[in-house]
UniProtKB/TrEMBL annotation:
It is found in: Cytoplasm. Binds 2 manganese ions. Its main location: cytoplasm. This is Phosphopentomutase. CDD domains: PPM (cd16009). Its cofactor is Mn(2+). The keyword Metal-binding applies. Keywords: Cytoplasm, Isomerase, Manganese, Metal-binding. The keyword Magnesium does not apply. It holds the Pfam family Metalloenzyme. Mn(2+) 1 binds at D10, D343, H344. Gene3D superfamilies: Alkaline Phosphatase, subunit A, Phosphopentomutase.
Amino acid sequence: MGRAFLVVIDSVGIGGAPDAGTFFNGDVPDTGANTLGHIIAACATGQAEEGRSGPLQVPHMMALGLGAAVKLASGQAVDGPEPHGTWGAATEVSRGKDTPSGHWELAGLPVPWEWHYFPDETPAFPDDVVAAVCTAAGTTGILGNCHASGTTVIADLGAEHLRTGWPICYTSADSVFQIAAHEDHFGLDRLLQLCADVAPLLHDMKVGRVIARPFVGEVGNFQRTGNRKDFAILPPAPVLTNRVQDAGRAVYAVGKIGDIFSMQGIDEVRKGDDRTLMRHLGDLIREAADGSLTFANFVEFDSLYGHRRDVSGYARHLEWFDTELGVLLGQLREDDMLLVTADHGNDPTWVGTDHTRERVPVLVAGKGAGTLGQIAFTDVAALVLEHLGVAQ
């Protein structure tokens, strides 16, 4: 039986979302945001990196139809070869531009409710949430209680955290409640247990994720570690992973997929930074069982470059991914399908530091050349199920 590899390059939007004007970064609507299109333009004009000019070098994704998908989604013309893959552009209907909304819908389930977002003010959290955190942590208070950048908040409050032992709690424009704590001084296991204890309360409020954000180091040199863990709200209905697993097939999760779906329908998880995840994906292309699904997320496009508005770093990461993708494509079996898509945008040329509402590319290897046109996020799940021969 053929196998399917569904790869999400986190935040690589291609502009053109019809409802972008109803989503904002601060006071600025997302109308006109185009993560990939603006990176391509910045590279071509030398604005992506000092001393560099010329096109973004992503030949394998271009050959699958990436440039054509950008033009279809946003109207921006992109030079590239005639696609030899099956390509299209997908539009989201869930009222969110975040990780759970995008991934759930790619897996066939639009979010059936409005997420809860915390106000952009200080304090950001209601008294009952603060009290629950204090009770679970065994402290008399919390730090932060605001919207903040994760790296900035530990730099600003890390010293006070070490002095008081209070957890650092913050949020963003997404539906998230994040808790940062020092792995040694506060304890990693204690932080994970704290997040697990308060997650039910936050999930009842329809907050999508409680995220543990451990860090290490000393004052003036704090660094987040790879031990992040997302405690996500359970999908309210079966998703792609459930359907494949219920059909008796193996489901492998690479990256944060296991956290996003709260391990629903997942047999095995492999984690690490993006380069480690690429090795895991290569191993699974060689080893995954017949008829299986591998669902992967490469998060550093979003976490390291999109939110930090690092155009140069984003461009380099795209080029690294494309080079590795070329190797993977050469290792696919004749009856395999590999599909590359994204979950939302995060235009590094845009205002603010938040996600941007965009369409996403859908690039399919293993199905020949063809055009999907404008499709829905949920059609991605349908493509995978059809390839695997699993009932929709």
